[in-house]
Amino acid sequence: MQVYKELAEIIRREQVAEDIYRLTVKAPDIAAASKPGQFVMVRTGEGLDPLLRRPFSVHQVAEGGMVQILFKVIGKGTQALANMEVGRKLDVLGPIGRGFTIADDSQHFLVGGGIGIAPLFFLARRILKKSEAFSIRVLLGARTKDEIAALADDFKGMGLVVDTITEDGSLGKQGLVTDLMADLQQEKPVMIYGCGPYPMLRAVAKTCRENSWGCQVSLETMMACGLAACLGCAVLRADMKGYVHACKDGPVFDADDVAWL
């Protein structure tokens, strides 16, 4: 798989919520090669602080070589990105990793928690090229409505059915995103595509095993290099006989291949 290094110009910066931003950059080679579920490594500063690149899922690609990333400000690197102006050039590596495999002749359920929603927008677009909108359902969860309201509208704008749930009940039902899975209907084989915090994905995988549903998960892990050299993103295999690396072997895995401890 070819990984490209581009100086990508920031074309647009959006503040989606109080601490969530979306950047659109021009990176033609990365845009052309990207698949849903893959990620990019971005240098967020020009000096040694921050020293390491930051990983971000490919949120969307568009005509003209555009790539979008969606991120939450949680530290110095993401704060630096949030402060960057249109016209600034970013040093970007990508696309990296293994993405989602779109199942044939299935009902597609996209399950996202918090900022884990990021890669599912790109995935939904790709599924729509192969399937009708009625075969796709989006389940989104977060702590409050501020984190997902605008993103839910983006999915609805694609003609998709979107169910929302928040921990404080400010949007949709009150509870966790896995609570929404109890109402899923099975008219065809089911494929679940999940991305979010580890505890959420563990619960998603458990529900899928109990219902004999297919399940792919995009694991959120610490990634320092993106090349499987630092060993920071090691994931224990289901057979307990070794590790795989989220940056190289993932970040998308079949849920049955992961040891959910």
What does this structure look like?
The chain has 261 residues and is an alpha/beta fold. The protein folds into two domains: 4-96, Beta Barrel (Elongation Factor Tu (Ef-tu), domain 3), CATH 2.40.30.10; 107-220, 3-Layer(aba) Sandwich (Rossmann fold). It is 17% helix and 35% strand. It is built from five helices and 16 strands. It has helices spanning 28-33, 76-82, 120-128, 149-156, 198-211; strands at 4-17, 20-26, 39-43, 54-57, 60-62, 66-72, 89-96, 107-113, 136-142, 161-166, 173-174, 190-196, 214-219, 234-236, 243-245, 252-254. The strands form three sheets. It has a seven-stranded antiparallel β-sheet with strand order 4-3-7-1-2-6-5. A seven-stranded mixed β-sheet has the order 11-10-9-8-12-13-16, sandwiched between helices. The protein has a two-stranded antiparallel ribbon with strand order 14-15. The model has no long low-confidence stretch (mean pLDDT 92).
Parts with pLDDT < 50 across at least 5 consecutive residues: none
Strand line-up of the largest beta sheet: 4-3-7-1-2-6-5
Q: What percent strand?
A: 35-45%
Please tell me the overall pLDDT. Answer: 92
How far apart are the termini?
Answer: 31 Å
CATH architecture of the largest domain: 3-Layer(aba) Sandwich
Radius of gyration: 18 Å
Work out the count of structural domains: 2
**What is the helical fraction, as a range of percent?**
10-25%
How many DSSP-defined strands?
Answer: 16
The number of helices is 5
What shape does the CA trace take? globular
Output the CATH class name of the largest domain: Alpha Beta
**Biggest sheet layout:** 7 strands, antiparallel
Which fold does the CATH topology of the largest domain refer to?
A: Rossmann fold
**CATH level 4 superfamily of the largest domain:** Nucleotide-binding domain of ferredoxin-NADP reductase (FNR) module
Order of SSEs, N→C? EEHEEEEHEEHEHEEEHEEEE
Decide which structural class fits the backbone.
alpha/beta
